[in-house]
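Category: protein sequence paired with discrete backbone structure
Discipline: computational structural biology
Format: plain text, a pair of labelled lines
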Amino acid sequence: MKKLSLVLAATVVCAPLWMSSAQAQFAKPEDAIKYRQSAFSMLSTHMSRLQPVLKGQVAFDAAAVKANVAVIQTLSTLPWSAFGAGTQGTSSAKPEIWSDAAGFKAAQQKFQASVVQLSAAADSGDLSKLRSAAGDVGASCKACHDSYRAKK
């Protein structure tokens, strides 16, 4: 657990540096697409790890929940810089991401705000607050997918 905390701390400290140079770090549009898809995949994985707790299928382990939520919070900042020019039309991302940049940015901010609330709920140790906050995160994911992700 201590090792995970150190990794997360380093990620949180370094994330702004990575994000500020994110466009420069992608040699090809395909690299940016893989990056954002990986970030979303990891977000999905860590949200899925919360599901058995939220459904009452396993006992509430506050430390495990906080660890997953900390990863979710870090990951929630990563994919957005990989929606740069040249990455349109090569994935399930709809063209509206670029034609409605303000709307996409608002959806991103809503998602990130819901993740902040999820973190607060995890810190509270209150399972009902955690369920509500996780529902809000899921709703923000769905809203963004409905507007900005093509159905496969």
About this structure: The chain is about 75% helix and 0% strand.
